[in-house]
């Protein structure tokens, strides 16, 4: 029931329960953009991103993430959750530019509501969450990892992490900013967010946007070791502490969710922003060529 209501909230175009379930089932049947492997004995699940080519957070991917998260939260045997990319090289390229470019306002609103839902769920997740950053991690990818309790990054100078929105000519929403400030502090956020900085591992560790940098072949074992340390703490004490620390930031978005959606739709629909996104997409294509 809870799953269906979540799906209905995320898929407002669907008119009935049947339509909601048919749409979700169809999405699932088409592909699994998220793969979940659970070690019941250890009480740990690993959620792997599988949305080629670059794990962009498309509407479908975001919806699958939310549905899988809700399932895991309802599974009382799972106490810890690790996020990683199934294919090393790109953890996540962030929000899907094609969900923010050349679409209509209804689509932008639906997309933004889903992205909000994902952040709200992740930031308040009662499980211990660890991001195993085994590839590039810009913008929305960085946001996902910053919602986790701990971040382990592979020591590969090709991989960078940060909120680079300004480099695309867009403005990170206030709750992205809040998450960054909570992670690295105010002054570092002023520099990081205005310049749209992407940090390679050593700098990422120095600024505190990740907590540990390890050789690439040890990134998964390091994440498991961190998880074991966190799972040694009694759940109820850790969960209440996490909720207490994060509640003001969560409340800030919950209070103004609809206004935030409207602001996003009006901002992203501007000709100048659409033009900027078009140029950025072209730049990505040219870089490839
Ligand atoms: C006043 C304010 C009010 C409200 C706030 C309003 C608005 C705020 C809005 C939005 C916030 C957005 C946050 C985001 O997450 S935006 C996304 C930012 N992401 C990036 O900048 C990353 C871009 N990508 C890359 O840098 C690279 O692709 C890479 C390092 C991740 C991987 O490099 P590779 O060399 O391995 O791969 P590529 O050849 O570059 O890419 C392959 C393929 O994938 C396409 N692509 C890449 N990233 C994205 C993406 N995020 N979304 C969609 N598609 C993407 C790329 O174009 C290539 O496509 P083709 O194969 O050429 O078709």
SSE inventory with pairings:
Elements: H1 2-10, H2 17-30, E1 34-39, E2 44-49, H3 59-74, E3 80-85, E4 89-90, H4 105-123, E5 128-133, E6 135-138, H5 140-147, E7 150-154, E8 161-162, H6 174-184, H7 186-195, H8 201-207, E9 212-214, H9 219-231, H10 235-254, H11 257-269, H12 271-288
Helix pairs in contact: 1-3, 3-4, 4-11, 6-7, 6-10
Ligand LSE3YFK7 is lined by residues 53-54, 56, 90, 93-98, 136, 138-140, 164-165, 168, 170-171, 173, 263-264, 267-268, 281, 284-285, 287-288.
Care to describe what's here?
The chain has twelve helices and nine strands. It is an alpha/beta fold. The protein has two domains: 30 residues, no CATH class; 256 residues, 2-enoyl-CoA Hydratase, Chain A, domain 1 (Alpha-Beta Complex). Strands 1-2-3-5-7-9 form a six-stranded mixed sheet, with helices on both faces. A hairpin with a 4-residue loop joins strand 1 and strand 2. The N terminus is likely disordered. The structure holds ligand LSE3YFK7. The site of ligand LSE3YFK7 has 29 residues, from strand 6, helix 11 and helix 12. One of its GO terms (molecular function) is isomerase activity. InterPro entries: ClpP/crotonase-like_dom_sf (IPR029045), Enoyl-CoA_hyd/isom_CS (IPR018376), Enoyl-CoA_hydra/iso (IPR001753). Belongs to the enoyl-CoA hydratase/isomerase family.
